[in-house]
Amino acid sequence: MTREVLLLDLIETEEGEGAPPRMRLVVRAYPSDEKGYASLTPECNTMEGFEQAVAELKKRMDSALERARETFQQYQAQVKGEKAVSDFHNAEEIWQALEECSSLEEMRELFNELSVRKRQEVADFVLTQLNIFKGAASTFSQHYNEGEYLLE
Fold it and tell me: Is 74 in the same domain as 124?
């Protein structure tokens, strides 16, 4: 019995120092069938199994999209001579950058562009470590959508 292998990866090609990143999503699958098709999901015999396989594929693609988004944000910040919010390594550093925003719109834009994982970490930091009854933390807590991990 042959085991199917699906490799989904994000490839970044660089033209040189200062050039914008170029991204592509590639897939390699082994083996292909007799018609040359490569399976993106295992063969499923129930709708539930197929839904789970597609959900896993979506999860992997969303992860690739988040990595690409962070790469492009870092490039844009570099071009502007700034540090991208996604460059910060922990929730407290990200929060400090968000706290300096001059408006809710600016905070919303920066926060919502972060990866889901980083948005969850920042939200956890704000909601458990800060006084949510005053200042930027209050604004954040009033507009944070816990189900979608977004500022609205």
Answer: no
